[in-house]
Structures are given as structure tokens and as C-alpha cells.
Automatic annotation (TrEMBL):
PANTHER family the record matches: ENVELOPE BIOGENESIS FACTOR ELYC, INNER MEMBRANE PROTEIN, PROBABLE PERMEASE
Record key words, sorted: Membrane, Transmembrane, Transmembrane helix
Domain of life: Bacteria
Bilayer-crossing regions: 6-22
Taxonomic placement: Bacteria, Bacillati, Bacillota, Bacilli, Bacillales
All residue ranges annotated as the DUF218 domain in the record: 41-169
The organism of origin for this protein: Lysinibacillus contaminans
InterPro entries found in the cross-reference section: Cell_Envelope_Assoc, DUF218, Rossmann-like_a/b/a_fold
Protein name in the entry: Vancomycin resistance protein
Amino acid sequence: MRKGMLGVAGAILIGGITLYLWSGTLLERGMQPQADGTNAYAIVLGAKVNENGEPSLSLQYRLETAVAYLEQYPHVKVIVSGGQGKEEPVSEAELMQTYLLEAGIAADRVLQENASTSTFENLSFSKKLLPEGETGVTIISSDFHLTRAQYLAGKLDLEVDVVSARTPKSVEEKLRLRERAALLKTYVVGY
């Protein structure tokens, strides 16, 4: 009986390591294809707004990346996407819109989706703001988040390329581990 338990434990350990390595490979692949201004619309996926009304470091990096991209491609319009959590004084989308406007992005280039509470809703609700028939979109989010975002966009019949924002070093391991679990759940459940 004891030998059987060791065999099961070994199989679970090997399976866990395999899943961990596989999901890590998927996270790296998510940063392709890199956006080149081809799509007329971009979506910035929300992240936490701190209680003091400032963006979390993850959201700050996404916004800095969005500003650089929008400055490089002035024809691109952007949808800022994210609702308001219990601890957040404003919606993620409202904070993002304010940030982009203060950074000099023209108001007529920024659309706001402020009802979503998940990555799937970010994309689904943002899709409703696209002109009819528009299916090409650029996703701007943290590097670790892009694989799942692309998968979910595909479920919504969106054709995407991506712009990768760096992940804060202080929370990188925690966020990557959490994203691996979310990615596996998404592949099993579908969203």
C-alpha cells in the first residue's frame, strides 16, 4: 500500500511540474503578435485602483505603455476597460481615461467601458463599443496577462495583436502564479 501511495504522489508531482512548465510557456507566447498600429482600436485592460485614487503599479505600467503606443500611432482609438471594485474610489476605466487625457491623448480617441469585473467582461463589453463589423483590436495589458486575454478575445471572435506592459517586480511571482491558475481554469471552463 505504501509503494502505491508513493507512486501516486510521484505522478501528482510530475503532473504538477508539467502543468507549471506548460503554463509558463503559454504565458511567454502571449506576447505575440506584437501590435504595429494596424488595428484602429486598442483596449487597455483594467487593474486595481488603490484606495487613495492612484493606479496600482500594474495599472500604472499599463497606462504608461498605452500612452507610448497611442503617441506612436495617433490614428488608433482606445477603449479603457474596467469597473469599480469595493475598495476602489472610482472605476478603473474612469481613472484610465483621466490619466490618458492628462497625458495629452485627445478626448475623441478615448472610449470608456466601466461595468466589467473580469477579463472576459472587459473584452465582451468593450467589443460592444467597436464599430459594427470591426473585429481587429489591439490588447494592452501586463505581459503575464496577454495569453488569457488573447484566448478570451478569440472566444468573442476578435482578431488581436498585443502590446505588453511590464509587470512590477514586487508582485511578479505572485501575479504569474495566480495567472497560471486562471489560465488553466479558463482552458477548462472556457472563460
